[in-house]
Amino acid sequence: MNEIKNNLKDCNKMELKENPDALIVMNKSIPLHVEFAEENGICKTGNGDVAYLKGDAIVTGVKGEKYPIPREKFDQTYDLIDEENKLYVKKRIKMLAIQINEPFSVNVLWSKDPVIGKPGDWLIEYSNGEYGIIDSHIFKDTYDIIGKNEIKQH
Predict the structure, then answer these.
(1) Whose C-alpha in 9, 48, 90, 102 is 20 to 30 A from the C-alpha of 116?
(2) Distance (Å, rounded) from C-alpha 17 to C-alpha 79?
(3) pLDDT by residue (tens digit) across 32-74?
């Protein structure tokens, strides 16, 4: 496994706001089922194991994938739409994204270990230096491409 990790493109210093190939994207308003962790644990995501803490949100995505989000970040970015069925929708926020065509890794705010992307997956920059990886099949179902990155020339 360490050999695989050593051969990955490191996307931690990739500033998408400076990249003319980055796209402006916005998540679609899709109801997602959410549970809140009753104790600390590990979530097996499509990009590797991600630790979570008691109270963090465990979101079930459009393809049945699960991923944890720290409670504070979840409360800032999701709205409850159906309390009985535990359905939430992510607030529509503009982000930057780029498709990476080789295996890559990036550190995410909610895990001490980097997460791994496959060729064709999307690197998302939610805000300055806060990244995530979205599987290419999930990306097309969950994000709208708004336009090309508008880099300001000095």
Answers:
(1) 90
(2) 27
(3) 999 999 999 999 888 778 889 999 999 999 989 999 999 998 9
Dist. CA 53–CA 71, nearest whole Å: 9
Identify the pLDDT of residue 110. Answer: 66
Task: Sort 125 into a burial class: Cβ within 10 Å, 0-12 / 13-18 / 19+.
Answer: buried
Q: Which residues contact 74 (CB under 8 A, 6 or more apart)?
A: 34, 56, 57, 59
Q: Where are the domains of the chain?
A: 9-148
CA distance 36 to 33: 10
Closest-CA residue to 125 (of 152, 146, 148, 106) = 106
Rounded Cα distance between 120 and 135, Å, is: 8
DSSP 3-state of 43? strand
Helices (H) and strands (E) in the chain, counts: 3, 15
| Mean pLDDT score, 23-39 | 96
